[in-house]
Write a structure and sequence with these properties.
The chain has 6 helices and 5 strands; from the N terminus they run H-E-H-E-H-E-H-E-E-H-H. The chain has one domain: TT1751-like domain (TATA-Binding Protein, 2-Layer Sandwich). Helix content is 52%, strand content 20%. Strands 1-5-4-3-2 form a 5-stranded antiparallel sheet.
């Protein structure tokens, strides 16, 4: 009986561990390893965004905020960027869309010191975020174009 309980606990424990291990990769999120420091990855991403005619609205430095409250947090900086000529019309029609856009990217460091860049995919923006607010999905050509742009920015930031 005790062997069965131990086996059961081991199976449950392993299942929970496996689920947790893959929970870091939610649907619609793209995470790319960076060959650069956190600061350089942030700057390179912002430079790529601006060079494409888009704008960077702000940075949210979660680690700096945590430090003000005597908390420790590895680097986690969110970059809020966008293109008002593309996003404003939808926000005029559906004001609640502004809670989810402009889009964001995050540069972060893991426990081993590795730097990463994470962002929502173009398909996620169109199929999930827009859908949440009743905005018709972006035509496939637009999703493809934005996907390529995101990939280009990610490459410029991380390589």
């Amino acid at each position: 009986m005790i062997k069965q309980i131990v086996r059961f606990a081991s199976v449950v424990g392993f299942a929970c561990f496996t689920t947790y291990a893959f929970a870091a990769d939610p649907p619609g999120l793209i995470t790319v390893p960076s060959n650069n420091s956190v600061a350089d990855t942030i700057q390179r991403f912002e430079d790529a965004v601006k060079a494409s005619g888009w704008m960077v609205f702000t940075r949210l430095d979660h680690a700096a905020a945590a430090e003000k409250y005597q908390q420790k947090l590895l680097p986690r900086t969110v970059i809020v960027y966008g293109n008002p000529s593309l996003g404003t019309a939808n926000m005029v029609k559906v004001p609640t869309l502004a809670i989810d856009i402009p889009p964001k990217a995050m540069v972060w460091q893991d426990d081993q010191g590795k730097v990463w860049l994470s962002y929502n995919s173009a398909a996620y923006l169109s199929e999930t975020i827009y859908a949440r607010h009743g905005v018709p999905p972006t035509p496939s050509e637009g999703v493809t174009r934005y996907s390529k742009l995101l990939e280009d920015w990610a490459n410029k930031a991380t390589k």
